[in-house]
UniProtKB/TrEMBL annotation:
Residue ranges constituting the ABC transporter domain according to the UniProt record: 6-230
Protein name, entry field: ABC transporter ATP-binding protein YknY
Keywords, ordered alphabetically: ATP-binding, Nucleotide-binding, Transport
UniProt-recorded Gene Ontology molecular function terms: ATP binding
């Protein structure tokens, strides 16, 4: 058995913008062992979100190989990719992306509505996920009735409710104060330590990156270790 969750080889992504071609990722290699909490830093526009979108099968590479949990993702059809994503990926966004008219419980239940779980099984899974993120008592509140930190915890519960092995997080603490951010980072750490999740987290915040096992810097299409360290 391969103990890598992610293996990228020569991964490139280009976008055409009118007459010009932008290539945020160029022949990138990346290995992420199962259970690692990896932080990804880099200037604005360096391709961090692009990389998360490739890792999660939302977007497809222009070139190269991307093997996740032993599967060559680039070779899947669109339909296969959708099913694959539902089983393997939890996506956590900076601005939560919760449905405003639904309660915390209903937001977390959403990814399970496509599964063949019974209502009772869905209820148990959603309750467990909300309990895990420390929101067991606020399940009937809508997003506007929650703080930013609580909204992000609902979003994390939604990302883990289907029990995917890989979580990708795009600046999950970017909009939070330090105390709420620390709580989210502790939660993410617990998901790797106690639940074996692999996490790739984009952040601009060196303190957030310090919570991860390893930090890589994306610059000019390449991943570098310790690129911005001045110490
Ligand atoms: N769908 C798209 N079509 C065209 N160009 C795109 C698309 N998505 C991203 N880009 C371009 O690719 C580059 C990388 O964008 P990306 O969003 O990955 O950067 P980022 O590192 O996440 O930046 P930020 O820190 O500001 O979120 C940018 O030049 C951007 O304009
Ligand atoms: Mg981004």
């Amino acid at each position: 058995m391969n103990d890598l969750m992610i293996q990228c080889r020569g991964l490139s992504k280009s976008y055409r913008k009118g007459a010009t071609v932008v290539t945020p990722l160029e022949a990138l290699d990346l290995d992420v062992p199962k259970g690692e909490f990896l932080a990804l830093m880099g200037p604005s526009g360096s391709g961090k979100t692009t990389l998360l979108n490739l890792l999660s099968g939302i977007d497809s590479p222009t070139q190269g190989s991307l093997v996740i949990a032993g599967e060559e993702v680039a070779s899947l059809s669109r339909r296969q990719l959708t099913a694959w994503r539902a089983r393997h990926i939890g996506y956590i966004f900076q601005l939560y992306h919760l449905v405003p008219v639904l309660t915390a419980f209903e937001n977390v239940e959403l990814p399970l509505l496509l599964s063949d779980l019974s209502k009772k099984e869905r209820h148990d899974r959603v309750s467990a996920a909300l309990e895990l993120v420390g929101l067991g008592d606020r399940i009937h509140h809508t997003p506007t009735e929650l703080s930013g930190g609580q909204e992000q915890r609902v979003a994390i519960a939604r990302a883990i409710v289907a029990d995917p092995p890989l979580l990708v997080a795009d600046e999950p603490t970017g909009d939070l104060d330090r105390a709420a951010a620390t709580r989210i980072l502790d939660l993410l750490r617990g998901l790797t330590r106690d639940h074996g999740k692999t996490i790739v987290m984009v952040t601009h915040d060196a303190k957030a990156a310090a919570a991860a096992d390893r930090t890589l810097h994306l610059e000019k299409g390449q991943l570098l270790e310790n690129a911005c360290d001045v110490s």
